[in-house]
Design brief:
Elements (H helix, E strand, L loop, with lengths): L1 H21 L7 E5 L6 H17 L3 E5 L6 H8 L7 E6 H4 L17 E16 L7 H10 L5 E4 L5 H13 L4 E4 L3 H10 L4 E5 H9 L3 E6 L25 E8 L5 H15 L2 H10 L2 E2 L4 H22 L5
Parallel strand pairs: 1-2, 1-3, 5-6, 5-7
Antiparallel strand pairs: 3-9, 4-7, 4-8, 4-9, 4-10
Helix pairs in contact: 2-9, 2-10, 6-11
Protein name: Tripartite tricarboxylate transporter substrate binding protein
Family: Belongs to the UPF0065 (bug) family.
Organism: Parapusillimonas granuli
């Protein structure tokens, strides 16, 4: 009878395993959390990917915005979500690298997320308000030196790539600017247009349309080399500050403990999106160079960037929160 009981339990376990293996993933909608407000560059990227991934997955991918606190609100939410593959995070370098050096009590572990794949990397553009009538980066630096700590610069938020670009530029140019953090580009841009702030490192996709509309001026781009889509726009590096390079990068991750079976399916859907010509064109227009979508690319990016950002945060004396 004892042996019969063991056989029954073993059969039950095998039956459960077979049932799980047979279960189709995904069976319902997936929520993609983006840690920035609706209407910004990250939100636009999320919706572009979600649309294509939904076709591959055969289920809706719903974008949900949870903005604020240098992406920690959205990241913390996903870190606590059920690890079943139905909640994922569009994370940035702020989320996975910078925040570990800015928060004494970070509300999530940046190394614990289950990687899905690297999305892409994009530079920023240095914008200035029309009121200042700056014609070049040299004009910006001249004004900043004449009024130390008075000229203001907006950012996506404390510790974001936009903020770090501002800090790095101040170090190289030996100037002091007044940092004004916002929750994202959609909040910062109106202030720049109104002349309430003087400068702003913004993503190409949200900043350049305002330049084209004549509402703000652009002074330089933060990439190492000029962008093929903006060949006339000089880099910060070639404008007198050699070596300057600051980019924002984007990736998909899942809650800690998410099964590899789920992250593989999600990764395949991400790579299918990144290989789609229409998606790639939209990303390039946004100023984001598509990656290969692999988790290995994400791991390499994090490893490469940690010592660089740690040094920058220390040299910039950015206050730990």
């Amino acid at each position: 009878m004892f042996k019969t009981g063991i056989k029954f339990i073993a059969a039950a376990i095998l039956g459960m395993a077979a049932g799980l293996a047979a279960a189709a993933y995904p069976e319902r909608a997936i929520t993609m959390i983006t840690p920035f407000p609706a209407g910004g560059a990250t939100d636009g990227l999320a919706r572009t990917l979600a649309e294509h991934m939904a076709k591959t997955l055969g289920q809706s991918v719903v974008v949900e915005n949870r903005a604020g606190a240098a992406t920690t609100i959205g990241a913390s939410h996903v870190s606590r979500a059920t690890p079943d593959g139905y909640t994922i995070l569009l994370a940035t370098n702020s989320t996975l690298v910078t925040n570990r050096f800015l928060f004494k009590n970070l509300t999530y572990d940046p190394d614990a997320f289950a990687p899905i794949g690297m999305i892409g990397i994009g530079p920023m553009v240095l914008l200035s308000t029309k009121k200042d009538q700056f014609k070049s980066l040299a004009d910006v630096v001249k004004a900043a030196k004449a009024q130390p700590g008075t000229l203001s610069i907006a950012s996506f938020g404390a510790g974001t790539s936009s903020h770090l670009a501002a800090e790095y530029f101040q170090q190289l140019a030996d100037i002091k600017l007044l940092h004004v953090p916002f929750k994202g580009s959609t909040q910062a841009l109106p202030q720049l247009i109104n002349g309430d702030v003087d400068l702003f490192f913004d993503m190409v996709s949200t900043g350049m349309p305002q330049v084209d509309a004549g509402k703000v001026d652009v002074q330089a781009i933060t990439s190492k080399d000029r962008m093929s889509t903006l060949p006339k726009l000089a880099t910060v590096s070639e404008s007198g500050y050699p070596g300057f390079e600051m980019t924002a990068w984007f990736t998909l991750v899942a809650p800690p403990g998410t099964p590899q079976a789920a992250t593989r399916v999600l990764g395949d859907a991400l790579r299918a999106a990144l290989n789609d010509e229409a998606v790639r064109k939209r990303m390039l227009v946004m100023g984001i160079e598509p990656s290969d979508g692999s988790p290995e690319a994400l791991t390499a990016q994090i490893k490469q960037e940690i010592p660089i950002i740690q040094s920058l945060v220390k040299r910039a004396n950015i206050a730990v929160q």
